[in-house]
Amino acid sequence: MRGLTRKAVVAALAAAAVFGGLAVPGTAFAGDKNASLRVCSRSTEPVRFFLVGENQYGDWVGSRFWDIPPKGCTSAKDYWWHAGRSVEFHHRKPSTGWRWEARIISANDVRDGGEYTIWIG
Q1: pLDDT (tens digit, 0 to 9) for every residue of the chain, 121 residues total?
Q2: Residue 66 · residue 30 · CB < 8 Å
Q3: Could you tell me the CATH number of the domain that includes residue 36?
Q4: What angle do CA 72, 77, 83 make, to 5 degrees?
Q5: Domain containing residue 52
Q6: In Å, what is the CA distance from 29 to each residue of 22, 33, 55, 82, 83?
Q7: What residues contact residue 99 under an 8 Å CB cut-off, 6+ apart?
Q8: What counts of helices (H) and strands (E) characterise the chain?
Q9: Where does the UniProt annotation place the signal sequence (predicted)?
Q10: How far apart, in whole angstroms, are the C-alpha atoms of residue 45 and residue 43?
């Protein structure tokens, strides 16, 4: 039963990310730092991911899905996230299934409008 519940939660999160309000590119509020994200993988497996978090307008939104080739990187283009806050980083490898973790976008390590890199093992 636990596995079924977990699958239902992952499916609900994925649906919310796809059908919920989507982040769109645009001008951020003055004085706020916003960043796009790049996700890099050290794994020999392909990785699929999506993000959920606060965009440049302060709205809680989900992104589309992206794929990372083995030991590669993918930029999550056309989505902007509020720096200094965390995003939910949902990812799947064939060997592990769907997982998620909170990742902080460091406001100190990215300039406004810059690209911040998240690593996955």
Answers
A1: 445 444 544 454 444 444 444 444 443 343 479 999 999 999 999 999 999 999 888 899 999 999 999 999 999 999 999 999 999 999 999 999 999 999 999 999 999 999 999 999 8
A2: no
A3: 2.60.40.2190
A4: 95
A5: 2-120
A6: 18, 8, 11, 10, 12
A7: 90, 91, 92
A8: 1, 8
A9: 1-30
A10: 5
